[in-house]
Design brief:
Blueprint (H helix, E strand, L loop, with lengths): L1 H6 L14 E6 L5 H6 L5 E5 L17 H14 L5 E4 L25 H7 L1 H14 L5 E5 L5 H20 L10 E5 L2 H5 L2 H4 L4 E4 L1 H9 L17 H17 L3 E3 L10 H7 L3 E5 L3 H9 L3 H13 L3 H13 L3
Parallel strand pairs: 1-2, 1-8, 2-3, 3-4, 4-5, 5-6, 6-7
Helix pairs in contact: 3-5, 5-6, 11-13, 13-14
Bound molecules: phosphoenolpyruvate (PEP) and magnesium ion.
């Protein structure tokens, strides 16, 4: 089975009726680029840069310098051999603790995490933005901002990116002046107010892990409420539908990089809903590709409609099962 899947490496992920789905990899360290290519990824949809900042000890205890970050981002870019690498800016706090960011947080998931933390520490953020921009001289790079919810967060982020570009230009350091800038949609407010994002940004990526956490008000790290974590809750499906249709109308590229993208049980549903770009851990990519190759988009439509109209979890599960059984 594994051998058969590895033969699929160079086959594009196209449904039987000709709809191409772009499959990307989620990576945590630059060394993950090679396995991503091996799995057949068309690029990196999510480079979780916080792993360069976390679990540092001894001499490395301090935050990574611009040079250290530049080196890591460039390695990932070179490792992907011309395929796009989407680097997410620092997403610390809550389930991703950073010693330097530790302070009295009453409610870490709702506290000063991700973009909120970066905007509160503009020097740290600028250092990272400079390193990412410098890496963009070595291959296609995109910048992805986590946890955006407010218009002013977009404005301030774009201003800091402009400042980093200005500094690099003055220092005669190379970078891609047209580097695409996107946001993660992982807070329900961002999904519902999506028009706020589509005008100012180049692309969007849904972080379903946090979108589910914040929509259902369940701490994703708390095992006592893990049984309430439900990616098929009608509220989640409605939010996904709102995002995909708003993005489509606005003509802005959209991907999913949260856990739902790598869940084989959901592949046909997501494709049927209109998602065209999925980013997942590289190890899951071959089987997701196989599922897409076995799918006809047009046969999915009645099932997708039924699921999106239903507020009954038994009906949703059953319909999903019917969809899975199609053309197997
Ligand atoms: C997400 O929230 O779905 C996501 C991809 O980001 P992370 O899991 O790193 O928070
Ligand atoms: Mg997230």
């Amino acid at each position: 089975q594994r051998k058969k899947l590895s033969k699929l490496k160079k086959t594009p992920a196209v449904t039987q009726d000709g709809i191409e789905i772009t499959l990307l990899a989620n990576i945590e360290l630059p060394g993950d680029a090679t396995p991503a290519l091996e799995a057949g990824a068309s690029g990196v949809g999510l480079f979780r840069s916080e792993f360069l900042f976390m679990e540092r000890s001894g001499e490395q205890h301090q935050l990574p310098s611009e040079e250290e970050q530049f080196d890591a981002y460039r390695k990932a870019v070179l490792g992907m051999k011309g395929r796009p690498v989407t680097i997410r800016t620092l997403d610390v706090g809550a389930d991703k603790p950073l010693e330097a960011a530790e302070h009295n947080i009453l409610n870490p998931a709702l506290g000063l995490r991700a973009i909120r933390y970066c905007l509160a520490e503009p020097q740290l953020f600028l250092t990272q933005l400079r390193a990412i921009l410098r890496a963009s001289a070595f291959g296609p790079v995109k910048i992805l901002i986590p946890m955006m919810a407010h218009g002013f967060e977009i404005e301030q982020t774009l201003q800091l990116i402009a400042q980093a570009k200005k500094e690099l230009t003055a220092e005669k350091k190379e970078f891609d002046a047209g580097i695409p800038i996107g946001a993660m949609i992982e807070i329900p407010a961002a999904a519902l107010a999506l028009p706020m994002f589509v005008k100012k940004l180049d692309f969007l990526s849904i972080g379903t892990n946090d979108l589910i956490q914040y929509t259902l008000a369940i701490d994703r790290a708390d095992h006592e409420v893990a049984h309430l974590y439900d990616d098929l809750h009608p509220a989640i499906l409605q939010l996904l539908q709102i995002i995909v249709s708003t993005a489509e109308k606005a003509g802005i590229p959209l991907s999913i990089c949260g856990g739902m993208a790598g869940d084989l049980r959901l592949t046909r549903l997501l494709v049927g809903m209109g998602f065209r770009e999925l980013s997942m851990p590289a190890a899951l990519l071959p089987e997701i590709k196989q599922a897409i190759l076995n799918t006809r988009f047009d046969t999915l439509q009645p099932y997708v409609k039924k699921i999106l109209r239903s507020y009954d979890s038994a009906v949703i599960q059953e319909t999903l099962g019917h969809m899975e059984a199609l053309g197997k």
